[in-house]
Amino acid sequence: MFRNENSKPLRKTTKCFGLRRRRTKSGGGSEGNPDWMSRLPEELLDVPLWDLAIPGSHDSMSFCLDVSSPVLKSESRILRLIDRLFPCWTRTCVSRWATTQQSVLSDQCDLGIRFLDLRIARKPKGGLFFAHGIYTLMTVKEALDELATWLDAHPKEIVVISCSDFDSLTDEDHFSLVAFIIALFGKKLCFSQDTPTLRSCWSRGQQVIVSYDNQQMVLQHLELWTGIPYWYADSPDPKKVIALPGGPEAWRKTSSFLCQWSEPDRRRSLRRPPPVPEHEEDDDEGSLAAAPLGERAAARV
Q1: Cα(20)–Cα(64) distance, rounded to whole angstroms?
Q2: Which positions are annotated as active-site residues?
């Protein structure tokens, strides 16, 4: 994550914003991992959160992409041109390519996810949404409201929210978004000058760490943490992940990083390298790797 330095599935579905919510029962007959932080052993309670491996989801809001919306202005000129000529074809293809998750944030948290990768964008007709190629159906407010409700029901779980990209956001949008985040989470927010541990967060009622990839806003609000370095490795081999250009050197210089990669059949969490093998998640009962969440990310605070 980041440091501030200046199984056979049993499914039930319900409707949510026109989408289908999924809940998955995995190994051991327990439903997901909704309270795994509260069950960690005593010796981990005073360890800084940036020394823990935190499971995360990549493009966490991509489960609700809106095929009626245009592609982002930040996409290539040729893709935007094709979108104008053949919108039905283009947006369907983009949606299939860009969808990396299956369900709403509360379901992801129920399955054990504690790092949320939120790519925020302003729609051409107004309003803050999320985006991955195209925009989402759910607004930022709807998604964060849902997350806040989940946190109220799980007072010992700590979530890292990474806000980034900010496609087409104005300064006014940033001020409004940050004000909304601070008002919504309030005393649940961990301050950036703190060294958060599970025990310290529990004692203060803190549950949310907000990484905000806009330095101007970070400098104005102690409730915001700096953006997290992000490496993408399209490989199932952890050794290739470590060999990313600039990756190992950067990892040695900072305690802050997020690494995401794909694997044909499984998604695994990665602790900070080196060495690699002893940091992979085992397939023990209740392993988060067994949860069908789409592309995963391993984050380190």
Answers
A1: 10
A2: 58, 132
